[in-house]
Amino acid sequence: MQLSVLTNSIMNRRDLLKAASLLPFVGTTPDLVAQTTPAVRTRSVRMAYIGDTHIMPQRKPVNGVAEAFRHLQNQTDKPAFILHGGDVIMDALSRDKSAVQKQWDVWQEVVKAECSLPLEYCIGNHDIWGVADAKADTRYGKAWAMEQFGITKRYRSFDKNGWHFVVLDSVHPKPDGSWYTGIIDDEQLDWLKKDLQQTDPNTPVLVLSHIPILSSTVLVFNDRNPAKHPDTQILGSLLHADSSSLVELLHKFPNVKAALSGHTHLLDRVDYNQVSYFCNGAISGNWWNSDTYHETKAGYALFDLYTDGTIERTYVAFNA
Ligand SMILES: [Fe+2]
Predict the structure, then answer these.
(1) How many CB atoms lie within 10 A of CB 113?
(2) Ligand 1 center from residue 52 Cα (angstroms)
């Protein structure tokens, strides 16, 4: 993943929040529903997805995240809660303790000031603290992010508004120990199988992972110089390396309707068998360097979930 560096001057965080101004939102893109839409159906809930906020204590990301929160909460048809797909902060992996603390602090300040909706988090690769000299620290690895998110399990499920939500922990070391690849570990896989088996088959299921389980965006993520990529390769750091087995598992449960992700900062929808796989852009666009990464503008998504298991997404793009 591309990283930006914390080079700009650091402003007082309250000043940043005060200075947050309206960003021009440029449009919405509703997805067509792949399934045959019944004449009458009942909506279970409208919720929002935000992801890849990559906040850091600088004016642009602070203003951008604040405005995204305001904008989605000012919708006439307001979402009931928010799912965050991970990469909340710019980067914890290679930063020292003080730099990571500043990023978490500014995130919490923006949430406190601007977000009154319930937030459910998924762990992203940039949320994981990984500098070698921090190994003895109790916050090393995923612990600090989990503390910030108020969660005690790195993967979990919960029920809301008649739907079952499964939040996965996608980011793990490669088999050789190097960092990182998109998989779910054996313990998590056992849990996922049991969780799906124990869910009422009439209850629709939505899965959330940071790294996509299935997405066309991984084919266009890299830079556009074909000489650098003579053979198309799909990296396990971009798409779940266990994608095939996860797709097979989800297919065994017809009530699994959707799988949401972020990570690539790109927007797509892949309908494979009965599951719709949505990759949902990024609040930070091109990691705050510009408001567009490849063809996807910065933005957030609104999801309408229905009692019959159908789902619709509206992507709200803005100039980050
Ligand atoms: Fe990201």
Answers:
(1) 16
(2) 4
Distance from residue 263's CA to the centre of ligand 1 (Å)? 5
User: Strand, coil or helix: what is 274?
Assistant: coil
Q: Which domains does the chain have, with CATH numbers?
A: 41-318 (3.60.21.10)
Average pLDDT over the chain, rounded to whole? 89
Q: Which residues contact 249 (CB under 8 A, 6 or more apart)?
A: 192, 193, 196
Paired residues of 261 in beta bridges: 279
Ligand 1 (ion): residues with CB under 5 Å are: 52, 87
> What's the rounded Cα separation, in Å, for the pair 231 and 75?
44
DSSP-based three-state secondary structure for 178: coil
pLDDT tens column, 289-320: 999 999 999 999 999 999 999 999 999 998 76
Separation between Cα atoms, residue 299 and residue 280, nearest integer Å = 8
- Helix, strand, coil shares of the chain, percent, nearest 5, are 25, 25, 50
Cα–Cα distance measured from residue 130 to residue 144, given in angstroms and rounded to the nearest whole number = 11
How far is it, in rounded angstroms, from Cα 68 to Cα 107? 13
- Ligand 1 geometric centre to CA of 264 (Å): 6
Band (pLDDT 50/70/90 cuts) for residue 13 is: very low
Within a 10 A sphere around the Cβ of 116, how many other Cβ atoms? 8
- Ligand 1 midpoint to CA 54 (Å): 7
Using the predicted structure, report yes or no on whether residue 21 has a pLDDT greater than 90. Answer: no
